[in-house]
Design goal:
heterodimer, A: mainly alpha, about 0% strand, B: Rossmann fold, Coagulation Factor XIII, Chain A, domain 1, 2 domains, 6-stranded mixed beta sheet, 11 helices, about 25% helix, globular
């Protein structure tokens, strides 16, 4: 199927994308007492735990800002990625009854998972603004970078979720790999620590090639320090994100015709 | 009429074993059929359908009928060949397949409608009509997990037919729900066809194929075994089924589990005749009918009991003749037996009925001839009623017609009993 045809088809089904996202959101929180508040509880809980550990037990320096704000800022892009990947990886497989019976652009399933996590992140931002007020962290005009950062990070997230959800149809191992992978990735990203800390050169390189480093550090720069993102960190992140999104998309496009046969 | 669907030598290969390297082959675009561990679900199938045409597909389980619908609806891709579709395809492969149990009927209508390709505004416009057709107005705000299977199916069907499809694919869905709903489904499909929708119907219920379709296709082992008018194709199909049974009997391996005696008796032929002995395919309401069968008994079956029944297009049995109920048995020796059952009258309203039948041994529990389709009987309006009555009404009415008379008169004052006499007296 040509790219153009795929795009027009997706456009034709845009209402399905909206309805499906809505459905995912509703279903995820429907029978939960806290409902959509869970979107906020998770990053908040991690923030509290990390704050206790890394201020009371093993002090980690968080330059110029209170440690809880420092961690929570990283939690926003991080939970976007981990939430989208956790729910998105099985998005095709868990709807197999649909995939084997009705045609619609299959990319809607993983993309809706991304969209729900996106809205979760927006809810997280609401809390964040409150947090900034409590800790009296000033806002700067560079916060206008935030939508740009989210856009580039979305490329990364979409690529990963598309690729993982397609591979998971063929090999269900992917579903088990994802949580492990995320756990390792969390420690390989400057969520609980800062890139300003002294570290060996090889490790710095690894961290720079990790696209989440660029986004987390850029989020902190624009939200906490009133600085523009550091191009040396953001540029590699954008390039890696673009590459991953292309690989993920083409994986999905290649494997998608066989979904109904393999499931 | 313009062509809306063209299939050119379409084949579909299914790999049955989870072969290694499938991801890799998908990547390099070489998902080629291998000799071991797979099957051709369809082989070199050609099909052209024009706007407003209704085509029925008959065939065994696993003959490739559902695969064909899945290919047309693009759920799966052909291994080779091309499929061209003009317009919106809506499939009733499984009613309510897109429903989510936790969501309410209302939310699911929106969800299912958009899955089937409608826009949100289209769904909102059609909403009232969808609910009216499904007849579950009071349950629209209840999660569908609390629905009965009939309600589920009704809502599913209703959404699917409201998408105004150019091509409607229907797979064995008329048997769900009650008879009344089945009848309305058929009505609805007929109206869709009149307004230009092309319908492809897969059904085991041969009477619904004959009722709805202009043309039929018999698919056997993934290939077209016959095509033409529903009547011809159905009789070819039934003859083919009998032929295949005969062939399998000699191999002795066409036995369904739990019933070792299936295949002891082989059905050679079935004829529907009038009382003068002439073969008929259609009769009029109330006419007598003779069902004449010839069987080969491969070994003797003491007290064999044959039974048959007529099924209306919605899948309901409406008339039964059963040797077990009648206390009659055939002491079938090895050899050929001719059996006739004379029905004094077939009190059925006009439409197509399929004839199903089978044979039990003396215990009345073990099949010696497995239940199968025997043929299709078309009942037409009888002469008198055709002259006076509303024929289209007869096709929609409940199936059984018992001759009756109407009597009415004016009640004059003289006829009315005095009020006093109605009061209870002691």
């Amino acid at each position: 199927m040509s790219r153009m045809r795929r795009l027009t088809e997706f456009w034709h089904h845009r209402d399905l994308f909206r309805t499906w996202t809505q459905r995912e959101f509703q279903v995820r929180y429907k029978q939960a007492v806290l409902g959509a508040a869970w979107a906020i509880v998770q990053p908040l809980a991690f923030t509290i735990v990390y704050s206790v550990i890394f201020t009371q037990i093993i002090p980690v320096s968080s330059p110029d800002v209170p440690y809880p704000v420092f961690v929570y800022t990283a939690m926003l892009p991080w939970t976007y990625l981990s939430g989208a990947l956790t729910f998105g990886v099985s998005s095709v497989v868990s709807n197999l009854s649909l995939v084997t019976k009705i045609y619609f652009p299959r990319e809607i399933l993983p993309l809706a998972a991304v969209a729900v996590s996106f809205f979760d992140m927006l809810l997280g931002f609401v809390v964040y603004v409150g947090l900034l007020a409590v800790f009296a962290v000033p806002m700067h005009v560079v916060v206008l970078w935030v939508p740009v950062l989210i856009l580039f990070q979305t490329l990364l997230v979409v690529g990963l979720v598309l690729g993982a959800s397609a591979l998971n149809v063929f090999r269900r191992d992917i579903r088990f790999v994802v949580p492990l992978f995320l756990q390792l990735w969390l420690y390989a990203s400057p969520v609980i620590y800062s890139m300003d800390l002294p570290m060996p050169n090889w490790l710095r390189w690894v961290l720079v090639l990790n696209p989440m480093t660029g986004y987390i550090e850029s989020f902190r720069a624009v939200l906490l320090y009133g600085r523009s993102p550091d191009p040396a960190l953001l540029l590699p992140a954008v390039i890696v994100s673009l590459a991953i999104s292309l690989v993920g998309l083409s994986t999905f496009v290649k494997l998608e015709p066989y979904f109904a046969d393999v499931i | 009429m313009r062509t809306v669907l063209t299939l050119r030598s379409v084949s579909k290969w299914y790999a049955l074993t989870a072969g290694r390297g499938r991801v890799w082959r998908a990547f390099v675009g070489k998902s080629r059929p291998t000799d071991n561990g797979g099957l051709w679900a369809l082989r070199d199938l050609d099909l052209t359908m024009r706007q407003g045409e209704a085509v029925g597909i008959v065939g065994h389980n696993g003959a490739g009928k559902t695969t064909l619908l899945k290919l047309i609806s693009r759920v799966t891709r052909p291994t080779s060949g091309t499929i061209e579709v003009a317009g919106r395809v809506s499939s009733l492969i499984e009613l309510g397949a897109g429903f989510h149990p936790e969501l309410t009927g209302r939310e699911n209508v929106m969800l299912n409608g958009t899955i089937l390709g409608m826009s949100r505004t289209e769904v909102i416009d059609q909403y009232q009509s969808i609910v009216d057709f499904a007849e579950i107005k009071q349950f629209m705000d209840v999660p569908v997990k609390r629905y009965s299977s009939g309600m589920y199916a009704r809502l599913g069907f209703s959404v699917a037919v409201h998408t105004r499809p150019d091509i409607l694919l229907v797979d064995e869905v008329l048997s769900v729900g009650d008879a009344n709903f089945g009848m309305r489904c058929i009505e609805r499909m007929r109206r869709l066809r009149e307004s230009g929708t092309t319908i492809l119907l897969v059904s085991h219920n041969l009477s619904s194929v004959q009722t709805l379709c202009d043309r039929a296709l018999w698919i056997n082992h993934g290939q077209v075994a016959a095509s033409g008018t529903p009547r011809d194709v159905i009789s070819d199909y039934l003859a083919g089924v009998r032929g295949a049974d005969a062939g399998a009997d000699t191999d002795g391996d066409l036995q369904s589990p739990g019933s070792q005696d299936v295949g002891v008796v082989h059905l050679v032929s079935v004829k529907l005749k009038d009382t003068s002995g002439l073969a008929v395919r259609s009769i009029q309401t109330g006419d007598p009918l003779v069902v004449a069968c010839t069987f080969d008994f491969n070994r003797s079956v003491p007290d064999a009991r044959f039974w048959f029944y007529l099924v209306d297009p919605t899948g309901n049995a409406v008339l039964t003749a059963d040797m077990r109920m009648d206390g009659v048995g055939m002491s079938g020796r090895k050899g050929r037996v001719h059996l006739e059952c004379v029905l004094d009258t077939v009190p059925l309203n006009p439409r197509c009925y399929s004839l199903m039948g089978g044979m039990f041994d003396a215990s009345g529990m073990n099949w010696v001839l497995e239940l199968s389709s025997l043929g299709v009987l078309e009942v037409e309006p009888d002469h008198d009623r055709r002259q006076e009555g509303d024929v289209s009404m007869m096709y929609r009415a409940a199936p059984v017609h018992v001759p009756h008379e109407w009597d009415w008169r004016y009640i004059t004052e003289h006829d009315v009993e005095p009020l006093e006499s109605r009061e209870p007296s002691h």
